Amino acid sequence: MTSSIVIGAGMAGLACARHLADSGENVIVLDKARGLGGRLATRRTEYGPFDHGAQYVTARDAGFAAWLDQAAATGLAAPWEQLGMEQTWWVGAPGMSKLVAPLAEGLEIRNPCRVETVGQDGEGWLVACENGEMFQADRLAVAIPAPQAKTLLSGVTPLADRLDAVRYAPCWTLMLSLAEPLEQAPRVYRASDGPCAWIACDSTKPGRSGEGENWVIQAGPGWSDTHLEEDPETVHGLLCSAFESWAGALPEIRSSQVHRWRHARVLKALEAPCLWDGEAGIGLAGDWCLGPRVEAAYLSGRALAGRMLKTQSR
Ligand SMILES: Cc1cc2nc3c(=O)[nH]c(=O)nc-3n(C[C@H](O)[C@H](O)[C@H](O)COP(=O)(O)OP(=O)(O)OC[C@H]3O[C@@H](n4cnc5c(N)ncnc54)[C@H](O)[C@@H]3O)c2cc1C
């Protein structure tokens, strides 16, 4: 049986690993974070969850749509109803990170396990983690954001040169829990940029319950870039006052925190489903291959697994 290591337990890495495992491969997944899902992220607090990364998922591809339907049948995905919406907005229940749970089920996953170096010996690929653990396999799939993949793989594979073409936008996110509902404010608001490019009442998503309301405010790409290196306290103040200007006087704030995403959404993608070197047995996948969406990450991960399986069966 061929063995594979997948680095990254976001949507791309788990879609890849699931496809390999379902095809009978021996696969292990490594991720540096405590939770699974990567930017499909949910912060749990005493006042309930906040989706501080991806907000919702849409499907254009029939295969991804069918996969979402299956996830919905298990209760881990549900539609987030909005007035006048043209396509279904899917969310994880009770948090966005739950969307990857059906992919992860039954897989061998080690986390937190930050990969520090990768290399080859006569037996295949060797992966060394920060905690001292070492892993070996015939093949390696790297499913992490392009700038991090570039750092890990420079000098290891010529595929790393292809990553220079990819660009990401950053995103500052504010998570605010209010003791009382904001009766008059729209539940969702979107603008092209500025401190409040996305505002959503997270508590209106299915599977979230509790008193009060949790709000997520995401700054746009230009604003986030301008304020990228500012300290979190300053950004927190700026985002809170921008939100208050939008919403009007706020009720009691129970908790608030900010999160800085350095590589949030893909601005310039590779425009290839994945990268694969069949001779060396190494490949890469991620949203950065196809575009700034969870669906792109899923399709890229599946595409890489497909290339790996084809090479094996030659
Ligand atoms: C603020 C924000 C809002 C967004 N909104 C939406 C939206 O509404 N709809 C939508 O479709 N998309 C949205 N996106 C984009 C979407 O979240 C991503 O496209 C998708 O989740 C990317 O999946 P991925 O698997 O390619 O990468 P990631 O989710 O980044 O997964 C990579 C994984 O690799 C791990 N990793 C990295 N380096 C190492 C290492 N050295 N060793 C081990 N593990 C490592 C990370 O911990 C992570 O779990 C948003 C993203 C952000 C940040």
Features:
314 residues; alpha+beta; FAD/NAD(P)-binding domain; globular; 5-stranded antiparallel sheet; Polyamine Oxidase, Chain A, domain 2; 18 strands; binds flavin-adenine dinucleotide; 2 domains
Structure explained in plain terms:
Strand 17 and strand 18 (282-284) form a beta hairpin. This protein has 2 domains: 3-40 and 98-166 and 269-312, 3-Layer(bba) Sandwich (FAD/NAD(P)-binding domain); 167-267, Polyamine Oxidase, Chain A, domain 2, CATH 3.90.660. The chain has helices at 11-22, 62-73, 101-104, 146-153, 221-226, 232-247, 287-290, 294-312; strands spanning 3-7, 26-30, 42-45, 48-51, 77-79, 90-92, 108-110, 115-121, 124-129, 134-137, 139-142, 167-178, 188-190, 198-201, 213-218, 253-268, 275-277, 282-284. Helix 1 packs parallel to helix 8 (294-312). The mean pLDDT is 96. It has 314 residues and is an alpha+beta fold. Residues 7-13, 30-33, 38-40, 53-57, 114-115, 143-145, 148, 152, 171, 173, 218, 261, 264-265, 286-287, 292-294, 297 line the site of flavin-adenine dinucleotide (FAD). Flavin-adenine dinucleotide binds at residues 7-13, 30-33, 38-40, 53-57, 114-115, 143-145, 148, 152, 171, 173, 218, 261, 264-265, 286-287, 292-294, 297.
